């Protein structure tokens, strides 16, 4: 019974980290363009990579939670 609980906690942690990363990107996108005159392409690449990483973390966390839930139900 220990493994499904740890997997569910891991899944919840990954989802939380992904959401925090997306929130950071949203806040940074609001403020950085007004402060940075040069390096627009650089910041666009950084934010794109952060968004992709956040979405991947959310997807992996959701899959971990679903896997843990299916093991508990079996």
Structure explained in plain terms:
By secondary structure, this protein is mainly alpha-helical. The protein has one domain. It contains two helices and no strands. 9% of the residues are buried.
Summarize this, please?
With 74 residues, the chain is an all-alpha fold.
**Whole-number average pLDDT?**
82
So how many helices? 2
Using the alpha-carbon principal axes, give the shape: elongated
| Poorly predicted runs of 5 or more residues | none
Q: Determine the strand fraction and express it as a percent band.
A: under 5%
Radius of gyration: 17 Å
The number of strands is 0
What is the terminal-to-terminal distance? 11 Å
Order of helices and strands: HH
What is the element layout, followed by pairings?
Layout: H1 2-35, H2 40-73
Notable characteristics:
2 helices; 74 residues; 92% helix; mainly alpha
